Amino acid sequence: MTTIGLIGSGNIGSTVARLAVAAGHDVVLSNSRGPQTLQDLVAELGPKARAATPAEAAAAGDIVVVTVPLRAYRDVPVEPLAGKVVIDTNNYYPERDGVFDALEDGSTTTGELLQQHLPQAHVVKGFNNIWFDHLRTLARPAGSADRSALPIAGDDPAAKRAVTEFFDSLGYDTVDAGPLAENWRAQRDTPVYVTPYGVFGELPGTPASAQVVREALAAAKPTAA
Ligand SMILES: NC(=O)c1ccc[n+]([C@@H]2O[C@H](COP(=O)([O-])OP(=O)(O)OC[C@H]3O[C@@H](n4cnc5c(N)ncnc54)[C@H](OP(=O)(O)O)[C@@H]3O)[C@@H](O)[C@H]2O)c1
């Protein structure tokens, strides 16, 4: 059992929290408006959940999921995340986030931006390529024939092992896409983004095996953001 800190408790954060509690983990939720605004979600999740500030959620988590709009990544608390495994779900939507020149010209990736902001954390990109409702509906126990896989990317092998174990507990296999600099392979508009798991907005979604995910990652073409 692990404590999962969530910085951001919206579509993806609340879905990860639900899966984590179902898997027996404790969760500490946070958002921008304060713990009092998360009481309904905490009540739904039960005694394994509590709400806190982002700094408290960061300090409490063995694994911390950063799942805020990309424009807010610099608000993520730095000091309490030193030495921790941080999962970065964030995607770049300039119409929502504003224009980031280094993403537009392809000189960096969203995962590397968060890693620069958190130099002592071990950032692993994950959960960013699946619609949150498919993340909820496609979770399956280990060994299921229709289990789906999710890609990860990161520079620290121990952090990637921890995330692989965490994903396994939630109901997913993992495909290692390589170092953090390779996380463009799973960014918006690449073959592995959303579509392998079904049509955006339509449930219940389509299971995507590790082989499907591996082939989609390999088919990605380098383009700016
Ligand atoms: N939606 C999806 O299916 C999906 C799938 C994969 C990846 N993603 C990516 O994952 C990220 C989160 O997406 P989402 O759909 O879950 O977004 P969302 O539903 O809008 O939730 C965003 C969460 O972040 C919190 N937040 C915003 N600014 C913050 C700050 N400065 N400090 C702390 N918390 C802050 C919000 O809190 P308040 O409400 O209190 O402001 C909210 O809890 C985005 O980068 C998105 O592109 C989304």
UniProtKB/TrEMBL annotation:
Gene3D superfamilies: NAD(P)-binding Rossmann-like Domain. Keywords: Oxidoreductase. GO terms for molecular function: oxidoreductase activity. Pfam families: F420_oxidored. The keyword Magnesium does not apply. Residues 3-92 form the Pyrroline-5-carboxylate reductase catalytic N-terminal domain. InterPro entries: NAD(P)-bd_dom_sf, P5C_Rdtase_cat_N, STEAP_metalloreductase. This is NADP oxidoreductase. It comes from Actinoplanes nipponensis.
